[in-house]
Amino acid sequence: MQREEWFHRAVIYQVDSSLFYDANGDGFGDLAGIRQKLHYIRSLGATVLWLTPFYLTPLQDDGYDISDHLQPDPRFGTIADVIELIAPRPRAGTAGDR
C-alpha cells in the first residue's frame, strides 16, 4: 500500500505578493497585508500558501532573479515581517487564532 503524502491532500493558494493586499497604503502589496489576510485564506480551505518572490531583485526577470535570499525587498517589508508571516499559527477556531 502506497503512503499518501501531505501534498496529495494539500489545497495550495498562490499569492502574488505585490498585488495581494496593501497593508501600509503605498499602492503595493506587502507581507503585512498577506499576514492580515491569513484568516481569509484559511477560510477558503487553503492548507499551503505559495508566495511569489519578495526578496531583493534587480527586476530583470519579473522578480524571479533574486539577488539576496536573506533580505526582502523593502517594498514588501522587513525580515521581521517575514518572520511574523511564517511563524507557526494555531489552527482556526482555537485560542490565539488570528
TrEMBL record:
Annotated SUPFAM superfamilies: (Trans)glycosidases (SSF51445)
Top class in the EC scheme: hydrolase
Top-level division of the source organism's lineage: Bacteria
Annotated ranges, domain Glycosyl hydrolase family 13 catalytic: 18-87
Keywords, alphabetical: Glycosidase, Hydrolase
EC number: 3.2.1.10
Gene Ontology biological process terms, A to Z: oligosaccharide catabolic process
Record carries keyword Hydrolase: yes
Gene3D superfamilies attached to this UniProt entry: Glycosidases (3.20.20.80)
GO MF annotations, alphabetized: alpha-amylase activity; oligo-1,6-glucosidase activity
InterPro entries: GH, GH13_cat_dom
Protein name: Putative glycosidase
Lineage: Bacteria, Pseudomonadati, Pseudomonadota, Gammaproteobacteria, Enterobacterales
